Amino acid sequence: MLKKRYLLVGAAVPLLILNGCSIGDSTETRDIPIEKVDMSRYASKTANGIFDGVLNTKFVDIKINGEVKIFTVNDKAIKQLKNLNEGDQIQFVYSLNGKTIQNELQSIVQVNGQEVENLTEEQKPVKNNLEAKKKVKEENGIEMEVNYPNTTKIVGAEKNSFIDGTFNVIDTYDWSNQTLKKDETEIRFHTVVDTIEDDIQKERWRAADILKEIGELHEKKESNREGVRFIFYAQNDDEYKEIMVLKNKYGYLRVETDTPYDEKEDTIAEVTAMLDTIE
Fold first, then answer.
1. Dihedral angle computed from the Cα positions of residues 191, 195, 200 and 206, in that order, rounded to the nearest 10 degrees
2. Which residues pair with 70 in a beta bridge?
3. Cα(172)–Cα(83) distance, rounded to whole angstroms?
4. Residue 237 pLDDT more than 70?
5. Would the pTM of this model clear 0.85, i.e. be above it?
6. Is the pLDDT score of 225 beyond 60?
């Protein structure tokens, strides 16, 4: 049911945390001011409420604890809304959109206590991926679990050479010349040979200089990966680019990820899963 309402959507104004950072001729040591970004605020959450109608194709009303709240709607959830009626009890997944700084409806999980059957493949729980798991085994492939934002999914992979060792490459990617490619996504790996122990300032300058061409610079501070020295990223309406420098048994490694903005969360999850398999 379509509602008529006038909405004023405020534009989020990101905070510029690095201005004019580039690598010059001077070798003087400099500190780059980086704002700590709390990425947990963008994590997906599950909630229960009462469907209160669609405002237009981009906004929906959901009553939570007696209060009507407005959510934007992503492309995956729009189709699900066609099957809802006002007053339906729903369980849904939402997150804070990093561009609009508004709560965005990602998917409907249950309607009136019944699980929604038409979930996208990425949104299905791992127990529903048994057929994919069986297929991987039959083909003598490698099983991998990828922790996507909304679920854990079983995927197939192939073992490939990596520097002086090996790692598992998800079978939807092509691996060549230390680069992973899939559609418009590209992930490049470089060994950093000119970095003094625990002195990565030069790499920070390099990353900042590259990313300022994409958008405003941010740094992730909450990485749980062992050996990570820094993760910088920048984004715009079309593109997300991330540069990470970490240290493992092969020395310092730079990982540069370029992917469409709408695919960034899934891409980061896949990169994380593949890095975890380096041997």
1. -60
2. 61
3. 33
4. yes
5. no
6. yes
